[in-house]
TrEMBL record:
Assigned keywords, A-Z: Hydrolase, Metal-binding, Pyrimidine biosynthesis, Zinc
Chain positions recorded as Zn(2+) 2 binding sites: 156, 183, 236
Species annotation: Faecalicatena faecalis
Protein name as annotated: Dihydroorotase
Uppermost EC category: hydrolase
Catalyses which reaction(s): (S)-dihydroorotate + H2O = N-carbamoyl-L-aspartate + H(+)
Names of the cofactor(s): Zn(2+)
Active site: 309
EC number(s) stated in the UniProt entry for this protein: 3.5.2.3
Binding site for Zn(2+) 1: 64, 66, 156, 309
Length: 429
């Protein structure tokens, strides 16, 4: 199979390329990149894609996804989750370990890889938990898990509250050069909190979650990363002070990276519609001041990654009682359009910076040979029409999850093609 992608705006952060170029793929690799490839180079192309007016990015990588498979397949399955990823423009995703059972040994990890092999149109990577069963008591065998193919360790969904145990985990991770993806919420301070603490949580009469719930663990774990030399990646940042703490850590030369999710740079707690638990996620939607700080962090490089934290739940877990509803929203199929609408269009990020945060930086953090549009590399390519406007309709999602606060929102920027390993796994035109 040969695909000739013509006249697209090729955005390759690895080489800082932002230019109108042609790309030719052959089988699963990139064969040629250049200005107006000659007719003898392209004569036998099986597919010609006119990418005029479109961004052509290295295949997007979402390093924070909940696939819910094994065990929670009433929320999402390997099939539906990876299809949703392809629809959203992602050619690689990292699945979190908080499934049932938790992915905490090599056997369970290998089973996920086998399952993905049998049905996924895109590449699935699986994170392994930090502690057995995510119980926070006993560490997993990180060396064995790395050997079985886990690119990262993560207790996402929870914080390892025992600082001494977490420090041990960081020492192990450092010796194996595995990044640790850190969910930062102090369980004792969070209590039964459901929404950001403030006027809105008071008005809705639900318990609040303060910024310190998040910031204290971010600070703790950055200090532990300093002590242990581990590579620490802070998941789903939502607060103003998290930006200050991470910025300072980077200035100190620590191996700290961080991500923000589209809902946290798009919405504030003032947007919450009473009785609609699709506005409930961990960490919660914060204040305008926090959102502005996140955008500043995205602009100045404090934030390396945009990830979705795709967290599908069934309708019965997202009922109108916000206090008791599950935390989390789906995101794979809305990340690109929200990033373009909220960050690229207003000029906060250039399209090249978007590609960096949605492909090249996640690849570097996970230590995979992806995110770079170069001859000889995997033909993982995402083609986006940045001008296409549409209304988000959760009924059309490939994901089983309908839990999004963005249903009915008008957005700009549409994934036209997702090409993974030289195969087209999404096409709009
Ligand atoms: N973000 C969420 O609100 N929920 C996630 C867990 C997590 O990412 O912490 C989930 O697994 O449902
Ligand atoms: Zn989390
Ligand atoms: Zn998560």
């Amino acid at each position: 199979m040969k695909i000739w992608i013509k006249n697209g705006r090729v955005l390759n952060p690895a080489t800082k390329t932002d230019e109108i170029l042609d790309i030719l793929t052959e089988d699963s690799y990139i064969k040629q990149i250049g200005k107006e490839l000659s007719s003898d180079q392209t004569a036998d192309a099986d597919q010609i894609i006119d990418a005029s007016g479109c961004y052509v990015m290295p295949g997007l990588i979402d390093m924070h996804v909940h696939l819910r498979d094994p065990g929670l397949t009433y929320k999402e399955t390997m099939e539906t989750g990876t299809k949703a990823a392809a629809m959203g423009g992602f050619t690689t995703i990292l699945a979190m370990a908080n499934t049932s059972p938790v992915i905490d040994d090599a056997e369970k990890l290998s089973a996920v890889y086998e399952h993905a092999e049998s049905c996924s149109p895109i590449q699935v990577l699986q994170a392994a938990s930090v502690t057995k069963g995510m119980k926070g008591k006993e560490l997993t065998d990180a060396a064995e898990l790395k050997k079985a193919g886990a690119p990262a360790l993560s207790e996402d969904g929870k914080t390892v509250m025992d600082a001494s145990l977490f420090r041990k985990a960081l020492y192990q991770a450092a010796s194996l050069d595995m990044p640790v993806l850190d969910h930062c919420e102090d369980a004792s301070l969070k209590g039964k909190g459901a929404l950001n603490q403030g006027a809105v949580s008071k008005r809705l009469n639900v318990e609040g979650i303060t910024n310190a719930v998040e910031d204290i663990i971010i600070a703790r774990d950055i200090l532990l990363a300093k002590e242990t030399g581990a590579r620490l990646h802070i998941c789903h940042c939502s607060t103003e002070d998290s930006m200050k703490i991470i910025r300072a850590a980077k200035q100190d030369g620590l191996s700290v990276t961080a991500e923000v999710c589209p809902h946290h740079f798009t919405l504030t707690d003032e947007d919450i519609i009473p009785g609609n638990s699709n506005y409930k996620m961990a960490p919660p939607l914060r204040s305008r001041k926090d959102v502005n700080a996140l955008i500043e962090g995205l602009k100045d490089g404090t934030i390396d990654v945009i990830s979705s934290d795709h967290a599908p739940h069934a309708a019965h877990e997202k009922t109108s009682d916000i206090a008791s509803a599950a935390f989390g929203i789906v995101g794979l199929e809305t990340s690109v359009s929200l990033t373009i609408s909220e960050l690229v269009r207003p000029g906060y990020l250039t399209p090249l910076q978007m590609a960096e945060k949605m492909s090249w930086n996640p690849a570097k953090i996970l230590g995979i040979e992806k995110g770079n549009l170069a001859v000889g590399k995997d033909a993982d390519i995402t083609i986006i029409d940045p001008e296409a406007e549409y209304v988000i309709d959760s009924e059309t999602f490939a994901s089983m999850g309908r839990n999004t606060p963005f249903h009915g929102r008008k957005v700009c920027g549409k994934v036209m093609y997702t090409i993974c390993g030289g195969e087209i796994c999404k096409r709009v035109r």
